[in-house]
Amino acid sequence: MAADLSQIVKAYDVRGVVPDQWDESLAELFGAAFVRVTGANAIVTGHDMRPSSPGLAGAFARGAARLGADVTEIGLCSTDQLYYASGALNLPGAMFTASHNPAQYNGIKMCRAGAAPVGQDSGLAEIRELAEQWRESGAPEPAGRAGTITRRDTLEDYAAHLRSLVDVSDIRPLKAVVDAGNGMGGHTVPTVLTGLPVDLVPMYFELDGTFPNHEANPLDPANLVDLQKRVREEGADLGIAFDGDADRCFVVDEQGEPVSPSAITALVAARELARHGGQGVIIHNLITSWSVPEVVEENGGTPVRTRVGHSFIKAEMARTGAIFGGEHSAHYYFRDFWNADTGMLAALHVLAALGGQDGPLSALVAQYDRYVGSGEINSTVDDQAARLTALKAAYADRRDVTLDELDGLTVTAADWWFNVRPSNTEPLLRLNAEARDAATMAEVRDEALAIIRG
Question: What residue stretches are annotated with the Alpha-D-phosphohexomutase alpha/beta/alpha domain (predicted)?
């Protein structure tokens, strides 16, 4: 077991290898610490399909109950289903998942009542300190009565809530291939789509935390290959892929071509603005496409640009009262879902938009996909700060560009932009570039990479 819990307590969650880095005894201490830090007298927990998840979630519940909190266990669920329970029941929550990480990993995503995130600056550091302290001195003594542990099924209520937020009653019949990657989408999708005119072609819906078919990480193009092939074979209208805990959704069109998450962000933003009377704030991180703020403004909304990362998105959602937010990584946040992210609700929006008109998805999203992007390109560097300084110096005196340092370094010109951000956990710099045409994008990308890689 790792002596230093900083190895597994990350910026936004707990994550590490089981049992090498953490186990049920530590999960029990995390449960007690969660109750102590949040001051909760009741919490809700859920878990994904990984072999270690039920045991870890159960241990966490015992630790929480030991300190007097009543625990509602919703069992197998997606991360956004746990957020639903936290919001609907107004309880702090803990979700046991390692998202898209390999099978030997597990983790905890924690939130306060109403799905408000718990991160390093909002309770996670204190939870880690208590768990470290108690691991040395022993678990805390019960404070009065022990809490109860009860089970509750929220899947039907979660599905009904999502369907209440998107009108899919009049859509034309659609054929959709859905790749759950043996993750929690296989549990939630059939219930959410019940009663809709969608001919569902399921792929890898069997819950299996060993991921026998491919990693449940659709951000890696290799993990979309099976879905792309099946969409073409089936003559389907679209394909949808979920990650392991089903909080992110990726879309491919009828030709099997991936649809940019920025295009999905713009599409959903336009629909949410229409739903809210043609006005409202839309959050987007600084490496989403120029298309996003353009579409937001064209539809009467106010775009607000933020740093990358869900804690920044959620903080800006709360500060501005935004109705929707989207990230390049296919996380989609909704005010009507407690500002939390839900890939399933984004997927319903795509189905509603596609089914509400007669054209193919490729034509529908073309209006939201106006530029050429590089995708994220990682470079291993010896000194992140020095490479960023060199990059800034290379562009500082150019009159045709502007520089900002909201998150790493962003260089913007009339026809292109690029952003370079340091990884928080690895010796990497991450480059994203975009331009009005492919040749310009390639030139800008290569020029930046030459400086980054020295």
Answer: 7-134, 156-256, 266-371
